[in-house]
Design goal:
The structure is a homodimer.
Chain A (H helix, E strand, L loop, with lengths): L3 H19 L6 H8 L3 H7 L3 H24 L5 H16 L8 H9 L4 H24 L4 H21 L4 H15 L11
Chain A binds a DNA duplex through α3.
Amino acid sequence: MVDREAARERVLDAAQELFYSRGIQAVGMDAVRNASGVSLKRLYQLFPSKEALVLEFLQQRDSRWQRALADYVEAQPTPEERIAAVFDWLHKWFCEPDYRGCAFINSFGELGAVSPEVAEQAQQHKRAFHDYLARLVKASGRPAKLADQLALLAEGAITTAAIFGTPEIAHQARDAACLLMHTHPGPDLPQLRR
Amino acid sequence: MVDREAARERVLDAAQELFYSRGIQAVGMDAVRNASGVSLKRLYQLFPSKEALVLEFLQQRDSRWQRALADYVEAQPTPEERIAAVFDWLHKWFCEPDYRGCAFINSFGELGAVSPEVAEQAQQHKRAFHDYLARLVKASGRPAKLADQLALLAEGAITTAAIFGTPEIAHQARDAACLLMHTHPGPDLPQLRR
DNA sequence: AACATCGGAGAACGTTCGTTCTCTCAACTA
DNA sequence: TAGTTGAGAGAACGAACGTTCTCCGATGTT
C-alpha cells in the first residue's frame, strides 16, 4: 500500500461504518484497523490520534450528508416542492437498513460534555442544516420563522425514527411542514413574483 | 451507614448528576463512589453491576421527568392550555443551568447500538411522552395525528436546545404547536362538547 | 549480491476501568 | 472480655484500549 490518499480513504470509510453503527467509544482503533486493512502504524501516520480521526469522520459525514440532501432537494423545481423534498429525503434516509439517527446528535450525547471539539462539530452541522432550510424558505417568500419550525420537525423526526425505527415518521413531519407552510403567507401566486 | 435505602438513594442521586452531565461511559464507578460517599463494596451490594445501576438511573429519570411534566401541565384548566403548557415546561427545563438534552437520547446515542436494554428504555420513555401528548390532544377533541406532530416539535426542541444551549427554541416550538392546533378542527366551543 | 528503506503484523506498554479481595476496625452478642 | 459480624478504604486483578515499538520480509538501488 503505497498510496497515502487511498489509505486515508479506506480508513475513513471504515470509520464511517464503525463509528456510526456502534458509537465512537465502542469502536477501538484495532477495529478500525481490521475493517480498513490499514496497519496501526500507518493509521497513526495518517491520523495522529483517535480524536483526530473522529473529527475527520464527523467533517466528512457532514459534507457527504449536506451534498446528498442538496442533490435530492434541488431536483425539485419550485421552492415549495423543495421544502417538502427535504422531508422526502429524510424518509429515504430513515429507510436505510443501518439507519441509527444523526451521527452528530449521537456523538454529542456521547462526547459533547467532554470534548468541546465534538460539541462544536455538532453545532456546525446543525447550523448548516438550519441555514439550508432558511434559504429554501426565503426562496419561497415566507418568513424566516418558518425555517425554525421546519428545523424542529426535521430534528424531531430524525431522533424519533432512530429510536423507534419507524421511517414513516418522516411523512408525519412532512404533513406538519406543509400545514405550517400553508399557514404562513407566501406570495399569492405559486410562481413568479418579483 | 446502616440504612440500605438511604444508601441506594445517595447512589442514585449521584448517578443522576454524573451520568446526565458527563455521559455514561465517561463516568467510572469510582466517580459514583466519590460523589455518593458509598463504598465500592456497598455499591456492588446495592447494584450488581454498572449496567444495573445505569438501568435504574434511566428508570428513575423517566418517572421523575414524567411527574415533573405532569405536575406543571395539570395546573392548567383547559386542554388547549395544557398542550401549550407542555412547551412552557420544556422552556423551564431548557433553562436549568446544567441542561444537556434528553438523557434517553444521549444514552441511546452512546449505548443504544450495543445495549438492547438501554435502547428499550429510550423507547419506553419516548412512548410514554407520546402517549401523554396523545391524551392531552384527545381531551381537546382533536385528531390523534396532532399528537404525533406535537411530539416531533418537542423532540426537535429538546435536541436543538441541547446542542445550541438556546432555551428560546421552546417558544418557537410552542408557536408552531399552536398553529398546528388551530389548523386542526377541534370542537367549535372551547369547552363542553359531548 | 549487499545494502538500505519501508511497511505490515502484532507484541508490548501504560493507563483506565469494572469488579473483587484484603485488611482493619467498630459494634454487637454471649 | 472474647468472638463474630459487617462496613469502609483502598489495593489488587483482569480486561480493554490508545499508542508505540520490534521484528521481519519485500522492494528497489548500486
